[in-house]
Amino acid sequence: MRIGILGGTFNPIHIGHLILAEEAYHKLKLDKLIFVPTFAPPHKAAEAIIEPKHRLKMVKIAIEDNPAFDISTIEVDAKKKSYSIDTLKEFRSKFGEDSQLFFITGSDSLKDLFSWKDVNDIFKISKFVVASRPGYPFKEVPKEVETVVITPIEVSSEDIRRRLKEGRSVRYLVPDKVRQYISEYDLYK
Fold it and tell me: Cβ(110)–Cβ(140) under 8 Å?
């Protein structure tokens, strides 16, 4: 099996994440793509991150109509800082040596890549795939990294949070059910 793993804070999940996932799924000829929301990402400040239960629920409702997509609670269930190497080892154990793992991240991650915990082991366990992201061109791509060009959609979770805090609309930036969930639980105010 060819399994894509798309980790992230998803704070909140938005159409950019979903387009990236859909295009990576097809371009990499994956059998399944698994979203892995983090509990506490090591490279981000925790103060702006809402509770994991809300981020998990938003991912679930955003992908519920796509049978190729799945969600893993492995990092949230661990209740500690999430490191990609640990998650990949768990997936390797779960899916076995016969499965090919594709660890997918955005091109904005390239600049910090070699600060990641055990990055060389990540390259050994999985095919490391960097997807294009507006404003972050492919620069100095290591030989271990495969790139995939994604339709450029200039949207970010940070911008969505700012809009919500300002009382502005996020319609069409997030799936409608996610927008309703954010409103129902009064998130990001």
Answer: yes
* Paired tokens of 61: 């409702």
Alpha carbon distance 129, 88 (integer Å): 14
Instruction: Tell me what pLDDT residue 81 has.
Output: 86
The dihedral through the CA atoms of 63, 67, 69, 71 has a sign that is: positive
Q: At a CB cut-off of 8 Å and minimum separation 6, what does 38 contact?
A: 7, 8, 9, 75, 76, 82
Q: How far apart are CA 7 and CA 16, in angstroms?
A: 14
pLDDT single digits (tens) 56-73: 999 999 999 999 999 999
| Identity at 29, one-letter amino acid code | K
What domains does the chain contain, in order, with CATH numbers? Answer: 2-154 (3.40.50.620)
What Å distances lie between residue 76 and 41, 51, 79, 181, 182, CA to CA?
10, 10, 5, 19, 19
Spatial separation of the C-alpha atoms in residues 141 and 62, rounded to whole Å: 31
User: Which tens digits make up the pLDDT trace of 78-131?
Assistant: 998 889 999 999 999 999 999 999 999 998 888 888 889 999 999 999 999 999
